[in-house]
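Q: My collaborator sent me two sequences in one message, no labels, and asked for predicted structures for both. Can we handle them in order? The first one she listed is below.
A: Yes, handling them in the order given. First sequence, followed by its structure tokens:
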Amino acid sequence: MIEMKNNTLASVIKKSMQNMIIIAALAVLVLIFWALNPNFLGKYNIVSMAQSLAPYAIMGLGVTFVIATGGIDLSIGTTCIASAVIAGKLYMNGMPLGWTIPIMIAIGAFIGFINGILIAKLKIPAFIATLGTMMFGRGLSAIIVSIPNIFYPGGTWFNKVFSNFNGVPVGLIWVVFFALICMYLMYKCKVGRYILSIGSNEEATRLSGIDTDKYKIIAYTIAGIATGIAAIFWSASFTTVAAATGNGMELDAIAGVYIGGTSAAGGTASIAGSVIGAIMLVVIRSGLNFVLAKFNLNVNSTYVTYVLTGIIVVVAVLMDVIKNKNANKVKVEKKPKEAKKA
């Protein structure tokens, strides 16, 4: 019992140290961009970054549960846009604006549930299953909507509640709220404990009597629900939503999760890190826009962002691989010593 408590304490300390390192790196980035262009920390840009952050951070929080199982969900970006355009089409056809909220969440939850069934019950590899639902959702939503753009209203309660309330970026408040819920689910509920256990050793978890298929489905459904919620914030912040888009959004959300310290191999998850990782990507994207504009550099900031994000993600995953190798090495070295003592 004492050893288990010590291991838990050590895990908490490691996560806290990891988060502190990421926060320090984020602070350095902010200072660099501010020094190069003081307008970077202007009120308008802070609100703009907050509006961009909310959908990506919420998607990242949801997909953290999937990655913690050792899986992946490539459909979240397309599902986010598909949820927004289908609900938006119904709104444009006369449905009350308030009904778009449960519809977006329901669409996201349904696609997440389907992903879970395909992966847990039909044993289709997560990469293939979610790639399939990504393409299916993108095509089907475009067929259903049948017009290139969906328009949500501006200046309504919808925007004020989910995006910008008189200059206050309320999306940040929502992100903190959802992060706290995810922390409770991941660290205080058996759902989170079982999901992490599946990521650490699925076979051992199954042999201990836990229905691993059930909790995999729950993980993907949580990711789907988060994607539907992200669609609400996307619609409120960017009132024109283009149908048959969303490719690439999932990569930003997943990259933020990896940067935040969640293990690509599963078994370890950092909810706070996922939010910090999303903030870092938004800061990099916005900061590069300001720097390139100030120095009149004829380079597309999106492509530069991809380069930097790719490097950061590879380094983050490489560090995770090295950490896991070292941990396994320590375990292997401990066993002979324990055997000798016995």
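Q: And the one she listed second?
A: Here it is, processed independently of the first:
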Amino acid sequence: RSDLYYRLNVIPLDIPPIRERRDDIAPIAMHLVQNLGKGFGGFVKNISPEVVAIFERYNWPGNVRELSNILERILYSMDGLEDTIKIEHLPLFLRNMAIEHENKARILRDVRDDSEREALINVLRISGNNKNKAARILGIHRTALYKKMRKLNIS
């Protein structure tokens, strides 16, 4: 009804979607859990940091309503023995996001370690296996060089 629209449109409020306010996702989720939890006996008190991180990475095409629906589904499925929402409580598509993120982090760590290993081997070759000289070339202390060599399994 157009008359209702004009009555409600006296002071327009422009509230951006939660995907544009990532810092607000955790407080909104906690508020929703507290409100929804009243209907479930209020046994859930927390959301794990890992779940909050997943929530902050997700795009939320359904905005707050989608977040509310997911939290409600999680609360229905929890058995009442746990007071914290964890990754295993999430729907499959969000759990898969956690696995993908973990794999990307692992890949980045492997690339970094491989690059560091290659650099150390090259510097050791250039220095004629002289650890003091290699450490000076790298600009690190000799004990730091030994630690890196041990970490990267370089003899």
